[in-house]
Amino acid sequence: MKKGLILPLLLVTLSGCAINSAFINYPSQLAPVKAELNSNTPLEGLDSLTSKISGNDGLLYAQEAGRVAQIGGDFKASKAFYQQAVSDYIDFDDKATISLSDTGATASSLLINDNVIPYRGPGYERIMLHQYQALNYIFSQDYEGALVEVRRSNELQSTEQARYEESNKSVQAMDNGTINTEMSKLSQAAGSTTSAFLNAYSYYTTGVLHEVLGEPNDAFIDYRKAAQISPNNRYLQQDLVRLAKQLAMPQYDEFKRRWGEAVFPTKNQGQVIFLIERGFVPAKQSFTVPFPISGKWQSISLATYPSRDPLVRPARIQGVGPLLQAAPIAEISALAITALKEDLPAALARQVARVYAKSLLAKNTSDWGSVAIQIFNLITEQADRRSWLTLPQQAQIARKYINPGQYNIQLDNSSPTQINVESGRTTLIWAIDTGNYTRFYSTII
User: Fold this and answer.
1) pLDDT more than 70, % of the chain
2) DSSP string, 323-392
């Protein structure tokens, strides 16, 4: 029995900083933080996140802390947390060889679970990290800093796709009925989203910044990219018609025929642009797949997502004249589902290796030792359910030209907030709806 248990127990001890995620699923750890975000004390959960930034999951906790600070309106603190996450991603990129600590974590994962592997977020999280850092700079009136971040976000949409395609070449999915069924369910849940690396919300944010800072050609390029991903968004369509006419683009006649005449502000009008985020991205669930090896049953746990997200309705904006209805531009939940589907073959390969390693350990022990190892397996076999859980479920946009002045705006049944509109300038309004609370941040550019 000692022979069968010493190594697993030693590895648990060596895993140290990752033990929480190894035995307590990540969504349950984040539940109190999300509850605070949906209250009038959104920053109360920060301390529980910052105390874990130095651990194996530090990158993930830094992303969560940055988002919590951002939702709570502390853009300075959010920038610092996001910069820590950016640095962690760069460290992952710069590692030409596997370090001793990584080797230990990987070895531990063979007998414990994937949660002991240091967290490196999927590509869509990294892209949104730079987009949200850009928003921190925008609402701090640092537009040059914002441009650096949005350009980095755009670059990552290409490089992360290439990284995935290269790494996926060597991974073969195992033919298993349970796995095949789950892959099919994930495909249905993701809907029309076919890539986790193409985010219309990020491209639109980049386009808006380019346009309001006097770079209409760059804005036109980013709006086109966004429209290719979200082709039915009427605000994007109107942006393309307007800029095509303004820039005398050859596509103008086609755009006009498809989407109508371009609309421009009158001489004294300003414009309001709404970025609206609703809900939270869903948390991963788990499912179990049994495997018989050498006459003994073992099981593995893999992550999955619910088959269907709660319905998100387009926001109804009051206070800027006739009722204005927002239009969805990105389903962040669909990006998360697609990312998991793309990673599932590699996760399955790791899990099968783990089952095999445990079976060998059980085979070389006494009957009691074998039973003990199977019990240990049941306790430690946890799906990797880590992901950036404070991201929104969906992003929506709206845009309108209005006369200068003060306006009391309201999103659905939220409390009203006052904004200012100036002639010839843009009022950017960022509304974050967490369920019970909607927080508004606005800046004039």
Assistant:
1) 79
2) -EE-EEEEEHHHHHHHHHHHHHHHHHHHHHHHHHHHHHHHHTS-HHHHHHHHHHHHHH--------TTS-
